[in-house]
Input
Amino acid sequence: MANVSIDLKKKLEEIEVRKKIQNFEKHLSSFDNQPSLFLVLANLKLQIEDIEGALKYIVEACKLFQKQSLFMT
Output
C-alpha cells in the first residue's frame, strides 16, 4: 500500500510540473529574450526526466546568453 501512495504522489507531482511547463511554454514568445526563463524550463523538464527537452532549453538559453554578451561588448 505504501508503494501505491508513493507512486501516486510522484505522479501528482509530475502532473503539476507538466502544468507549469505548459504555462511557461504558452507565454514563451513574450519572454523569448530572457535566457533565465529557458533555464527554468530546462529545470522543470529535468524534474520529469525529459532530458531531451531540458537540453533543448539549455541550448536556447546559451544562444540568448551569447547574444546578450555580444551586445555588451
In short: The longest helix spans residues 2-26.
